[in-house]
Design brief:
Blueprint (H helix, E strand, L loop, with lengths): L1 H18 L8 E6 L23 E4 L2 E3 L18 E4 L4 E8 L3 E12 L7 E6 L5 E2 L12 E10 L5 E8 L7 E12 L6 E2 L7 E6 L2 E5 L8 E8 L2 E9 L5 E4 L11 E8 L5 E2 L18 E3 L10 E12 L9 E14 L3 E12 L6 E8 L6 E8 L5 E19 L8 E9 L4 E2 L5 E8 L7 E7 L7 E8 L4 E5 L7 E7 L10 E8 L5 E2 L7 E3 L16 E7 L5 E2 L6 E8 L4 E7 L1
Parallel strand pairs: 12-19, 28-35
Antiparallel strand pairs: 1-11, 2-5, 3-4, 4-11, 5-10, 6-9, 6-11, 7-8, 7-10, 13-14, 14-17, 15-16, 15-18, 20-27, 21-22, 22-26, 22-27, 23-26, 23-27, 24-25, 24-26, 29-30, 30-33, 31-32, 31-34, 34-36, 37-38, 37-39, 39-40
């Protein structure tokens, strides 16, 4: 069906070209402004928004602002962020001199943010030479509808050479509004020969995670832009417009996945100017990929990556901050949000518990809020939370939410610089269970030889179901020197090297405890095990055999604690047990 539609489109274009001087399938951007990245005063300064459109003039008594950052455009495809028109009662913004000669099918799109739950009170009008006429549009109303919305492809009837657009807020309106990303497109009337562009090649999808992915293709410099078509389970789902012929990649986001695996593909169309070039056929489909809501999220930013988080007004940084949980490893990374900055998390299947580690700064506490969304557009507040000035604080939020669902975290501070550092964010689909503590057992393979750099012992413990690993804490008792070791994998013993220090009792007596590590989602770390004291006087050559003692057994161990029947080549620990109870442990080289 998809190929049949494309064939009809191609045939239709060909017929129209032969007929001459008629509309050709495809659209051209006649005007666009993203309101810039800096504040602009009301009045004549707004003329800068005309950009490269020489015949266009922008004016009005509304100013462009960029603060607070929490109200910059977001949540819709193409939201530019940064500057926006900040409307209060009686303000207007006008765009005049838009060239519509030789164009038909004129459409207006813009982003709008409302501060109330009522219908929009911004009046949008167009003027094609006979005075301003209202343009109808609507936004969602009711509880939870405050926020940004994209008003897309509002049709403007015109046959004139130019037109104007005006946005006005009534003089008695109490609510405030924001406008951003104003775009006007039209279909040109072609004359003469027009060449169809070649369909883009090598369409590839990468970095697909939960509800976002990247699309890459070979650019065609004759194109005016591209259209990306997304298909879900073989059916058209959504399209995205990309400007610029040299563009060869686009980040698609906020496609809310199902709870089960979806078969997704993408195609790309090269858009022509419809004067010299018509749009291409649809490209070959990308390889299939999937978007599946995550089971949970457990990220600490120590790797210096955003891990699929969508961050605005925030930066990744390194930190060295003690965790509020006693005995937990220090945080080494964080996302620092400035006033109004946000972190939007990938979609998860459902939520039962949220854990957020954060700290502020300065002399007073700071606050942030947590919101949820089932569509990536409308957001609903869970609550606001305070963080201390410098110490790590763990916020545990228990909230049952069916998904797929997204989370947004916002720094709600205003005035001055009030950054908040988020060091770890965990989203769980179940209330986690604390693992049972392992049972630490007696040390084995104790090596206690004067001046030998390979002294040490094997710490041993029992396995714990659902543990992802273990943490072994070793203490040199008399001097209170503590070392924490994380053995790789789910092992139940570990060689502890003491270097040239002999485990001989007194100042060189060692002890250890073991903690079973959870995945941080369904299972939390266990309490510490019992403490085992390493007493080499009872197990090594310090208790020397007498001349008349007989050998009962000889055993060999690798340096990783594995017993071998007969050492072949390398360094081993030899353990000799005598009939008088003496035990002799020595290092042997084969």
């Amino acid at each position: 069906m998809k190929n049949s539609i494309l064939l009809l489109k191609t045939l239709f274009v060909t017929i129209l070209i032969i007929a001459g001087n008629v509309n050709v399938w495809g659209q051209t951007q006649l005007f666009y402004t993203d309101m810039g990245k800096s504040a602009i005063a009301a009045g004549s300064s707004l003329a800068i928004l005309s950009g490269a459109y020489n015949d266009v003039t922008c004016s009005g008594d509304v100013a462009v602002t960029t603060t607070p950052a929490s109200t910059v455009s977001s949540g819709y495809d193409g939201a530019s962020g940064d500057g926006y028109l900040d409307f209060s009662a009686g303000k207007y913004f006008e765009i005049t001199g838009i060239n519509t000669s030789n164009y038909t099918d004129i459409f207006l799109s813009f982003g709008i943010r409302k501060s109330s739950t009522a219908a929009s009170e911004i009046v949008v009008e167009y003027n094609t030479g006979s005075g301003y006429m209202p343009l109808s549009y609507s936004v969602p109303t009711g509880g939870g509808t405050t926020g940004w919305y994209l008003m897309k492809d509002l049709s403007i009837p015109t046959t004139s050479l130019s037109m104007s657009i005006r946005f006005t807020l009534g003089a008695t309106v109490a609510a405030t509004y924001r406008i951003d990303d104003v775009k006007i497109i039209g279909t040109p009337v072609a004359s003469g020969t027009i060449t169809q562009l070649t369909a883009p090649q090598n369409v590839v999808v990468s970095n697909n995670i939960a509800d976002a992915f990247d699309v890459l293709w070979d650019a065609n410099t004759d194109a005016s832009g591209y259209t990306i078509n997304v298909y879900k389970d073989g059916t058209f789902y959504q399209d995205y417009s990309v400007s610029g012929g040299s563009t060869s990649t686009y980040h698609v986001k906020y496609i809310m996945p199902d709870a089960t695996t979806q078969r997704m593909t993408c195609t790309v169309i090269a858009e022509g100017d419809n004067i010299d070039f018509s749009s291409s056929d649809e490209s070959a489909e990308s390889s299939e990929f999937s978007l599946v809501a995550l089971d949970g999220i457990n990220v600490d930013f120590g790797d210096g990556l955003a891990n699929g988080f969508d961050v605005t007004s925030g930066t990744l940084t390194t930190v060295n901050k003690a965790c509020e949980t006693t005995g937990a490893a220090a945080h080494t990374g964080a996302i620092v949000l400035s006033n109004g900055g946000t972190i939007v998390l990938p979609a998860v299947k459902n939520i039962e518990q949220i854990e957020i580690h954060a700290f502020g700064g300065g002399t007073s506490s700071r606050s942030f809020k947590v919101e949820t969304s089932n569509d990536g557009i409308s957001w609903y507040l869970i609550s606001s939370y305070d963080v201390p000035t410098s110490a790590d604080k763990i916020n545990i939020i228990e909230q049952s939410i069916l998904g797929p669902v997204k989370l947004r975290i916002t720094n709600t501070m205003t005035g001055g610089a009030n950054p908040i550092s988020f060091e770890e964010i965990v989203v769980r689909s179940v209330i986690p269970i604390q693992l049972d503590a392992p049972s630490a057992t007696a040390a084995t393979g104790i090596a206690s030889i004067t001046s030998d750099p390979n002294n040490g012992f094997y710490a041993n413990w029992t396995p714990v179901s659902n543990a992802t690993g273990y943490k072994v804490t070793v203490t040199q008792v008399a001097v209170s020197t503590t070392t924490t070791v994380y053995p790789a994998g789910q092992v139940t013993n570990l060689w502890i090297s003491t270097g040239t220090t002999r485990p001989t009792g007194g100042a060189s007596t060692f002890s250890y405890t073991v903690v079973a590590l959870g995945d941080g989602l369904g299972y939390l770390d266990s309490p510490a095990s019992n403490t085992v004291t390493v007493v080499p006087d009872e197990q090594t050559s310090i208790q020397s055999p007498s001349a008349s003692a007989n050998i009962l057994s000889v055993k060999y161990y690798t340096l990783t604690g594995i017993e071998v029947q007969q050492p072949v080549s390398g360094i081993f620990i030899q353990k000799v047990i005598y009939d008088n109870g003496a035990v002799e442990t020595i290092k042997v080289i084969k």
